[in-house]
Amino acid sequence: MAKRLVVVGAGPGATGLLERLVASAPDFLDETLLITFVDPHPPGAGRVWRADQSPLLLMNSMAEDVTMFPDETVLVEGPLAPGPALHEWADETGTPDVGGRSFVSRTVQSGYLSWVFERIRASAPDRIRIEVRPDRATRVEDGPHGQIVHLASGALLDADVVVLALGHLDAEPTGESARLATYADEHGLTYIPPAYTADLDLSALKPGQDVLVRGIGLAFVDLVVLLTEGRGGRYENGSYLPSGDEPRIHVGSGRGVPYHAKTGYRLVGPPPPLPTHFGPEQIDALPDGPLEFRRDVWPLIAKEIGWGYYHELFVGHPERTTLRWDHFAAAYSDVPWYSDARVDLVASAVPAEEDRLDLDRLDHPFKDTTFADDDAVQAALRGYIEADVARRNDEAYSADLGAFLALLSIYGQLPRVLAHKQLTGRSQVDELDGWWHGFFSFLASGPPAFRLDQLLALSRAGVVRFLGPEVRFDGVDGRFRACSPAVPGTTWADALVEARLPRPTVAATADELLRDLLATGQGVEEVVDTVSTGRLRTNRSFQVVDEHGREHPRRFALGWYTSTRGAAAFARPRTNAAPFRMADHAARAVLSALRPGVGSATEEC
Question: Which InterPro entries match (predicted)?
Fold first, then answer.
């Protein structure tokens, strides 16, 4: 009799799981396996990467840095099945205008992801059957012979095992967002809460209207594209020519500056040896806990970033240093990050201050800065952005790429911290999910440099105005207002947009299936020492945990919304990327659950 696996969601994360399932299934099962994917959006691409969105929206990674196939560097238990990265697929299929260093549209990426899904499906052995149901799962429950998945169409699917691979989740406004939404309703204002930008209805933002925007990250970049080029404006010779349909965008955030641009060069020297200061050995040597991320983990991370940065500086640009790399590396390895010895070592070995890595200054570039007036803010922000774009396109500063590679290595090691060590609940929410995720994104997940050139053009054209750092947004006297303690004056508007994705919050999720899991006690929000992380509680094998602490042997959940957090769906080739390792672990756990003799959570002892 065939084994039945239902996967709820068919986006990139689910596709990565499928690749590992197909690779490892022969090691686990002799029976036929029927895998059913349930998703109203196209398989492979899913919701976020579907083809029917604006072609103006781009990926923020170069094509050569995106692959869905594990290569020889990936350390997994299942067999490897290599395949082409995005730019190689484009060459093979004749997709135009896709070079390795290009930033392709999301519609092009959609084509790659759909192709990947179909390639995996076609490569599956005969006894693995893969089908797709274009529907929405609304409920999952234990049945007399396994799992029952309810669909929005009214159909029921029987399953031996269910995997929830739901990807990005919408959420009902909570906390400040809920208060601002209520305030907007009461005063006839426009408030757009955190959401995926491509799904937003922006028609309420009128031409010439003053609009406050909180956030200058990737969601802001997408928002600006849709409100400018998406409304008929165009760029010409470094200037922006408005269509007249744009609103006036007043943008601010905590840092007050956009994410750093992607680098436009390659390493001058060889790649830095990673991990060195934040790998399994260093992580395992940490106390068992409870740990605080900033106090206990961050010093190791900071040292690893510095290692990647200084390796490229010393090896690629030795004329700007006073020591040989091996001498500096030995001394650097012996001193803690937070120490006068480390500061003195760098000062003696790196003469130019601009060549020294200052993570605090990077994190808060305008800390303790005050501005005389609005013109001073605009000038300072434009100067900052111009300098960033110039640095990210100048090979002389390729040490920044060394730091970037270290950040990627760190991201791949963090699951080990969560699996083997205990962070306090406050530290998980405020420091790991809050500060660290924002800092990583700020340094490593920025847009292509030309997007920042466009932002400069929009600023000069008066379409975008910068509000400064530490901006506070609220509602007063029937309007929205924004102000920065570093800048005199207040900005008023009748519209406020949150340019960010909602934080994980399964208690307020808009997903019907997850809401039902929580309402029936079949799932529970993770709580660590009385602090809710907002995530669906799962164990280290991705099994869903119910309100009684029982781990369901036939129900799994993967993704950022779970307590295992998951890794990004896309991987950089030849980096032993975390998404592949997590997908392999999950696939083998799921296949083990499909073996005969695995019980149901409803069975009595």
Answer: FAD/NAD-bd_sf, HpyO/CreE_NAD-binding, L-asp_N-monooxygenase_NS-form
Element (H, E) at 553: strand 551-557
- Please tell me whether residues 111 and 27 are part of one structural domain: yes
Structure tokens at 579: 């998404």
- Residue 367 maps to a domain: yes
| 34 plus 76 within the same structural domain | yes
Is the pLDDT reported for residue 339 higher than 90? yes
- Same domain, residue pair 15 and 118: yes
CB-neighbour burial class of residue 519 (10 A; exposed 0-12, middle 13-18, buried 19+): exposed
Q: Which residues pair with 36 in a beta bridge?
A: 6, 131
Decide if 471 contacts 483 (C-beta within 8 A).
Answer: yes
Q: Is 557 helix (H, G, I), strand (E, B) or coil?
A: strand
Tokens (6 digits) for 107: 């519609």
Q: What are phi and psi of 534, to 5 degrees?
A: 85, 0
- Res 529 pLDDT > 50: yes
Residue 34 sits in the same domain as residue 157: yes
Residues 544 and 584 in one domain: yes
CA distance 249 to 455: 11
Name beta bridge partners: 208: none
- Please give the biggest Cα pair distance in the chain: 76
Is the same domain home to 150 and 179? no
Is the Cβ–Cβ distance between 537 and 525 less than 8 Å? yes
Q: Is there a single domain that holds both residue 328 and residue 227?
A: no
CA angle 344, 321, 337 (to 5 degrees): 35
Query: From start to end of 95-247, where are the E strands?
Result: 128-133, 137-143, 146-151, 156-159, 161-164, 190-192, 210-214, 234-236, 239-241
pLDDT tens, position by position, 5-47 = 999 999 999 999 999 999 999 999 999 999 999 999 999 999 9
For residue 446, pLDDT beyond 90: yes
Report if pTM > 0.70. yes
Report the number of distinct structural domains present in the chain. Answer: 3
Q: Do 104 and 63 touch, CB atoms closer than 8 A?
A: yes
Structural domain boundaries enclosing 535: 3-168+504-593
Where are the alpha helices (H) located in 81-172, listed in sequence order? 86-93, 106-123
Look at residues 497, 273, 254 and name the one whose alpha carbon lies nearest to residue 367. 254
Looking at the fold, whether 188 and 148 belong to one and the same domain comes out as: no
What's the CATH number where 126 sits? 3.50.50.60
Identify whether 453 is part of a domain.
Answer: no
| Domain of residue 203, CATH code | 3.50.50
Among 195, 190, 193, which Cα is nearest to 209's?
190
